[in-house]
Amino acid sequence: MAAAKGAILKGLGVGLVSAVGDVLVIKQTQPLPAWTKSTKTKEQELTELRSAIDFVSGTLDELGAKAGGTSAEIFEALKMLLEDEELFDVATANIEDGWSAAAAIGKAVDEFSELLGGDPTFEERVADFQDLSKRVQARIAGIEMSLSIPATGRIVLVGEDFSPADTAQFTDAVVGVITYKGGPTSHTAIICRSKSIAAVVSCPEATALESGDRVLVDPVGDRVVVSDDQSLATKSIDFVAINEEPLIPVRANIGSLEDAKAASQTRANGVGLFRTELLYLSAKTEPTIEEQVASYTEILKSAPKGPIVVRTIDAGSDKPVPFLNMPAEENPSLGVRGYRLIADHRGFIESQLKAIEQARAASGREVWVMAPMIATAEEARDFSDLARSIGKYKVGIMVETPSIALIVDQLGGIVDFVSVGTNDLSQYLFAADRMNPSLGALLNHWQPALIKSLARIASGASSAGITSGVCGESASDPAFAVVLAGLGIESVSASKSQVTEVHNALSSLSLSDAKEIANEVLKQTTAEAAKATALSEIAKR
Q: Which domains are present in the chain?
């Protein structure tokens, strides 16, 4: 059934710009052939596979050069994954087991995707990796996967989701994007935000839209309106800094040397989350302390001025690091991950802490360390005692489980700080798989239950005499960062691309204003009302 004129379709907005345009529904390409056993020789299948991979790699080079910027970096990273010799070895083994070239690469990518799952940093890249697998299979089958997008007009693309190869084909006519699935950290969201294209993701009702419909893409309002009336768009807030410094420090999230260098070009006051596991995902053997020290030292020296919060390895059965040999689990989100690795891999946790300490001394930087997936005060004390016995840094924990969130006020004298990971806290608080697109509304950071939890964490930390921060995706939302400051959170750490926006927002009003805004938000009972109240209250000041 087609969407009626004036209909409002709810989703998750990306960015602060709105747009009116003509819908172009992107249909799924011709189905790929089912995986089958081979009727050719192994040599023929290997030749066919290598040729298809080379073709797709060449296409990535062309699209990356065309896209530039953030997309070019993502294309390069995906090309490295596609051309990984270990991936080809697994595909070769599948061919030797009798599978066709298409089936061999499909099965190999499925296996590698399991290694990358379970963390929002990697989950969205899994979809991109799977798209490359489909493109190799399509090349083998002779199926065309390119998009046909007009170069003129005002086009709003509508589809299930869009891969890097898809977004690289966006023309200047694309003013809006709507996806049935995806999330705020998907490639579609990243590109639309960087190119100021109005977008609403995780909008399942958009399946009712048809090519030719006129729609208003209203990300600030988290909606799509079947209308060509631009005046219906929810007004965004233009934050104007009136203070030299923000209400609370704004730090950056990083995971690599490149991230550290990029963050140092922003107004970030240090690093609020250094994801160390990104350095180990392809390591087949455990790195020596010397190798870790060299890597950490270079990153610490390149990071923006200010404290650097280093998270110890957040890996496990859902996101296995090869040299840890973690067994698969039926429910990895509730399994052995993060600090829980200490039971079987204490030696590596200790070596990592020693390397961080040596890098701290070598770089001369102020370093804090924290452990992920802490569930009890006893676990917090165990980590704190271990870390303090090894290094001269502040010690903290991630607050990602409801159990630890309830007892932050009991952590005084155990840790120096807590940092909230809102992605995981939301997942466990609402019993909602963060990768299930149908549950996106529950994972909205404006959910009242999450906001009340954050208020309790801030209050508990204050009474315990420890500092609190937020380093989840929610901290990258400028308006939400204002609410966090009003709740009593003492620092935020945002995606490096959002640091300036968050910095401006937190420099645009007084702390008393932020507290009044937070108090009004706390009275709301729906995510929509909480967000609308925050935007309205901020606009008054």
A: 8-26+147-232 (3.50.30.10), 42-141 (1.10.274.10), 250-540 (3.20.20.60)
